[in-house]
């Protein structure tokens, strides 16, 4: 079963984002994951859940929920959290497909 991790992103600091982006892929790969899609939001058709504004998104794939969880809580990824917090506001969730 493939597990997707989706991030909804509101950028707050472009320079910090570029620093984060240049390093995060390495942490994903360490936990058998891949970055499948990065993109910008063109239109929001419905927001019935009243989500906070976001302008970009990312889609990751992992081979299992355990790998996704291990990555999100790994020391390698946690080392990037301070940069991430400067770069963006983030909502991150996983979904099984």
How would you characterize the overall build of this protein?
By secondary structure, the protein is α+β, with helices and mostly antiparallel strands. It has one domain (3-96): Alpha-Beta Plaits. The protein contains four helices and four strands. The termini are close together. The model has no long low-confidence stretch (mean pLDDT 96).
Outline:
The chain has helices at residues 14-30, 65-72, 75-78, 81-87, and strands at 3-11, 33-40, 56-62, 88-96. It is α+β, with helices and mostly antiparallel strands.
Report the principal-axis shape: globular
Helix content: 25-40%
Oligomer: single chain
| CATH fold-type name | Alpha-Beta Plaits
Order of helices and strands: EHEEHHHE
Count of DSSP E strands?
Answer: 4
In what order do the strands lie side by side in the largest sheet?
Answer: 2-3-1-4
Q: What topology emerges from the helices and strands here?
A:
Elements: E1 3-11, H1 14-30, E2 33-40, E3 56-62, H2 65-72, H3 75-78, H4 81-87, E4 88-96
Antiparallel strand pairs: 1-3, 1-4, 2-3
Helix pairs in contact: 1-4
Name a few traits of the molecule.
alpha+beta, Alpha-Beta Plaits, four-stranded antiparallel β-sheet, 4 helices, globular
